[in-house]
Each structure stands twice: as C-alpha cells, then as structure tokens.
Amino acid sequence: MSQHHVLIVGSGRAGVAAAETLRGDGFRGDVTILGEESVPYDRPQCSKSVLTGHARPRDVWLPVRQGTSVRWRLGRRAVGLDPYNRVVTTDTGEEFEYDGLVIATGARPSPPSDWPIGAPGLHQLHTLSDSWRLRQDLRDAGRVAIIGGGLTGCEVACSMWSMGRDCVLIDSNPQVMTRALGEVVGALVTAEVQRAGISLRLGRRVRQLSRLKRGWLLVLDNGEQIRADLVVTTIGDRPDTGWLDGTPLDVTDGVLCDESLRVVGADGIVAAGAVARWPNLRYRRTPRRCGQWIAALEQGNAAAQTLLRGPWARPVTILPRFWTEQFGLRIQVCGDQPAGAEVTVTEMRPGRRDTARAGVLVSHSVEGRLVGLVAVNAPHAFTAMARVLIANTTPVKPATVIPVSPAPRAISQYAHGDRRARVA
Amino acid sequence: MRSAAESVHLVAASVGFASFFLLWLAVVWGIVLRNGWAQTRIKHATVYTFHMVVALLGLSLGIVHALAQLANPVGLIRLVHVLVPFSYRYDRIGIAAGVIGLEVLTALTLSVMVQRRLGHTRWRALHAFAYMAFMLVVAHVLVSGTDTGPGYVWGSVLVAWLFTVVLWLVSTVWFATTRRRLARNVNSQRQPGGVLAVNVDAVRCGRFAFCEHEAPEVFRLRSDGRLSYRASVAVGEAQSVVRAAEVCPTRAIALTQVPSVVMLERRTDPAIEESRSITSTRDRLHGRHRLTAALRLRRDTRRSTRPGRPPLS
Hints:
The structure holds 2 protein chains of 2 kinds.
Chain A: E1 5-9, H1 13-24, E2 30-35, H2 49-52, E3 71-74, E4 78-82, E5 87-90, E6 95-97, E7 100-103, E8 107-108, E9 122-124, H3 128-138, E10 143-147, H4 151-162, E11 166-171, H5 178-196, E12 199-202, E13 206-211, E14 216-220, E15 225-228, E16 230-233, E17 238-239, E18 255-256, E19 269-271, E20 276-278, E21 288-289, H6 293-309, E22 321-326, E23 329-335, E24 342-347, H7 355-358, E25 360-366, E26 369-376, H8 379-391, H9 418-423
Helix pairs in contact in A: 1-6
Chain B: H1 4-35, H2 44-68, H3 79-83, H4 92-111, H5 115-118, H6 120-127, H7 129-144, H8 151-170, H9 173-190, E1 195-200, H10 210-214, E2 219-221, E3 227-229, E4 232-234, H11 238-247, E5 253-258, H12 270-275, H13 278-284, H14 290-305
C-alpha cells in the first residue's frame, strides 16, 4: 500500500471526475471516495427522466471511466475534518487519513426548517431516492403543487405536465427561472410555461402548509388557498458544509478557494463542484459558487490537476454552461450574465408572436466583449456564438494573491516519474 | 352483372387487403419510430403523425371490412360473430383471430388518450400488444381469406409478415450486442492502429451540441438541426472526444475502443533483453503509440526485475 492517499469527500459528478483525472494523469497512490449515497449517479436526470419513467434509477448511474481504480466507501457521511492531522471522520465512526483531500459535497435544497419534509405527500427533490419516492407517490396524485420556480422546479413541472398531472407552480419572483436565464428570456419562457397549462402563482410565498386527510392545503401570502395531492419543494440552495464547522476554513456560502480551487487556510485540500466558492478569473476576482453539472465535471478535473501540480497549479477558468429542455423549449445558457451588461436580443424568426418557441438568442456583453449567452430553441446559433466565448479565455488578473498557508505541496511529487510519462 | 353477394364480397375483400397493408405499414413505421431510425432524416413529429394516421386508417378499414360482412344477403355472419370471438361456427379459428386482432388494436388506439396518464413505460409495454394483434391479423388473412388462393397473394402476405419479424429481431438488444461483438472481432483483426469508434444514439441525443464545444473537429450541429459526426477518431484526438462524451447531457455518445496493437520486436534472449536499454526501443517507436508503448515497457521491466520471477517472454 502506498503512503500517498487522496481522499475525495462526495461521490457526485465532481468527486468522480476528480478520481478519473487523478488516475488518468498517472497518480499511483490510493484514491478513496466517501459518499453519503449508495451509488454515484447523474443528478440532472432526477427531475427529468427518472420522474417521467423514461429511465429507471439504474439507467442514470454515473459511468466511471475504465481503469479508474478507486476504493469506494459509500453510504457514510463525513462529519468532521481535522486539517492539522489530516483526518476526516465519518458518521460511522471511521477515520480516514489523507495526503490530499478533495471536498466535493455539493449543495442541497433548503426549505424552511419548520416544514415537515418527509411527511407523506410532501417531497423535497434532491437525491435519486427522493426522485424515486416522488415517482411512486405520483401514482395516485392528480394535482401537484411545486414550490420554487427555479430550473429544477420548472423541470419537475414539465415532467408532471408530460404525465398529465395538474400543476401549480409557486415562486417568489415575478418570473420563472429568472436567476438562471435573466429577465429577458425569463419573461418569454414564463409566457410559454403559462401557455402550456401550468397555473403559475408568481411573486407569492407559501405562508402555511397544512396536512389534510388526503393531500395538503397551502395558504399563500395573499390568502389564496391551494389544495394539492402532492407538494414538491425545490427552494433553497445551501452548500453542504456542515461537517466543516469548527475548522479554520471559510465556509460562508461554500468553501472559499483560491483561483486554482485550493481551499484557503489549509494545506493539501482542494474543493470542486457546487460547494466551492472560487474566483473564476475568466470573469471576475470575487469568489462565487457555480452549481452546474458540466461545471462540476470540469471543476473536479481541475481540482485533481491542482493537487497533482502543487505549486505549479494553473487558475481554473471554466466556462459555466447548462441546458434544460421543457415544454418543447430547448434552453441553453453559457457564460455569465453580470448586472449592467449590454443585452442584445436576436430573434431567429422575427415577427412571430411566440418568440421563445420560434427561437431567440440573447447575448450579454461588457465593454464590447461577449460574456454570456442564453438561447431558446436556437442551438445552432448558440453553438456558433459559444465558439467565441470558448476561444476568449483572457483571464482577469488576480488583484492580490490570496495567501495559501503553508506553501502547497504537490501530490505529483510522490508520483514517481509519472510527470515525465505524461509529457512524452 | 354481379350478384349482390359478389359485390359485397368484392368490397369487403378489397377493404380487407387495404386494411392489412396499412396495418403492416403502421407496424413497420412503428418499429422505425421506436428505434429512431428515421430521426436523422425526418422530423420526429412527422414520423409520429404518419404512424398514427396510417394506423388509424388501417384500423378504420378493418372495422369497415368486418361490418361489410354483415351486408352480404346470403352470408351467415351476424353481428355477434364480428364482436364475440369463436362464435362463428364455420371458421372458428380464422374469424376469431381477426376479431381478437381488431379488438386489441382498437383498445390500443383508444389507450393513446390515457397515454400521458399511464406513463411512458407502462404505455410502451401495453403498446407492445400491437405486435401480437398484427400476428393475429396475418393469421386471419391466411386462414380465412377466400382470395389468398394464388401463391403470389399468400406469398406476399407471408413475406410482409416475415419482414416485420426480421425488422423486430434487428431492433432487439440481443441483435445489437451480437453485432457489436462480431464487429469487434473483425475490427481487431483488421485495424492494427488505435482507433476510437464514435457512436451517437439518435433517440437519446438532445441536439444541444455541447459535444461540439469540446470537439468541434468531430461533432457538428448543422443549421438544419441535425448532428453530424465522424464515426472513427484517431487516438490522438481521443481526449477531446472523451471530454465530449462526458459533458453530453443525455449521455448519448458511446465510445468503443478498438483495441490497439503495438508490435514490439521479438526478443531473442532474455539476458540480452535485460541489458538492452529501454530508451533505444522507445526511440524506435514513433508518433501516437509512443506513450502506450512506454507505459507498457515500464510495466514489463518492473515485472521482470522482481526477484524470484523469470522475465516475461
């Protein structure tokens, strides 16, 4: 057994990607993945094909690249970290020592704490088992209330709609998916969602949730009462950092990292996925989280490379992008939508009243430089424009180098001669 | 001048054959629809609508065919015989096959209305009964058809039926795995170089073109919304293609590594081999095989220097 051991906490997309890259780049030590759930899977499918029955839970298991030998320690949750002695403890009482640690615990929805999540008919959508349980409950449900009109909420609504259920979608914003799509596209998509037959309660909050003999009664803040057989909540997005409390790490809204995803304030720790708050120098110096699936993959890869390269780590400047397909709208987003950016709207077929369905491309630019794209039903134009975004990698220079103490060590220093083999 | 009975028979038989042809077309088209074979050429909605229209038309003509039997003034068929299977005494099996087939098909057509309520998987399972119903219709044509006398008539009915069977067999998982296994065997003998076979599942592919972001030299989303891609990729380009497969939101890209064979020289004497430096062998190798070969050599030497074990031959 080698003395060099990388521990990955989190078995989602980011964690598995980190393991794959470690092995792919020739790391010879041990790699252990700690995971709370029993199997790694593709989380985006939980609100889509798993709900509609197009896929069974087995079908969405995450394919792990061949030749990735990993010790899987699944079904246990990390509960503590000792960065000085380099030990992670789990809820089963085990202790895992590490030379390099990848934090990839992701984020979870956070409904108000007084809601009885888990009571029959009140669902929270986070894990694959949540999704499967929701699907089983759908069998006898005719009317479903969905709280939270973000990306996940809308995808759930679309799945319900495609299965012929009545849907009520409640959100506190005046549009659905505003945060993800921006206001211009948000308004267009909201109109389409309404046209599809989802009843929307926008700008409303749920004041009270009470259980009836059969189903649930929701009282909104304007006094309206909604009866539903099933309630699904998708609101909130809280990084899973509870187990890092009491450590010197900065965990306000995610683990603070430097531009190469090294966790600030500890040695030999990197973070990846929705839990990492890092300055993406492609756009800005202020650290931010990015809870997207492709970003998780790329962060996982990059975090592993940071571990291997040590002091020679490069800044991680990934291009955020995501997709969603709902109500016949193929929505793609790429890059950043900063406030105050110049917004250009291009209609694919000008003059059509259903702008979103006919195709629309919205580009955000700052000082004449294209920074973000949102497209609905315009994949070809989107790809052509995205090429510009991909090619344009001019990073923002970090104003001050965030000190990482002490000086980082490279895991790759242990990987005997492998660096040379990589170069060959 | 034909008699009334002859006229009725003529109409009923022609309608019956037309119905059979349309039902056959609907089944074939259904298989095409299921496997997404036409998806690169025809829009999914068009394929779907065509399937629906043809099936509905075939079914309606089938019902007309059944009811037309009642109009025969000298016929023995009564309404009860076209509703209740096995009730017609003179051709129990043949008529029953047609009646059951028609009733099952009608039920399946009506089930479209509760399709969304039923859920995709369950509805598909239900819809598979269409194959059985079509088999019954074929049996009905062959058993009770009075005009299937000449060989070319029953022959073509049989060929049409065989065609659907073959088409169905070709679309099974069993066939796909067998074909892949055979292809692998053939390819491994044919291609000594490292080649990555790329295959995109037309049904799963969402045409989001995230693969084009990663590997624009392999994948391209065309302006008409179709995705074109190169089906085989040299190992040198593999990295970007692997990335493309990873970011694919629908996991539609399958990569099959056609095993690459790197030929090393035959060794003559283990002792000489031990003394020969690795680098000289490595220098003789070139291009894309270099990395694999280097890794492989390192593994070999490590094994051979282990004490108590003879060097590998």
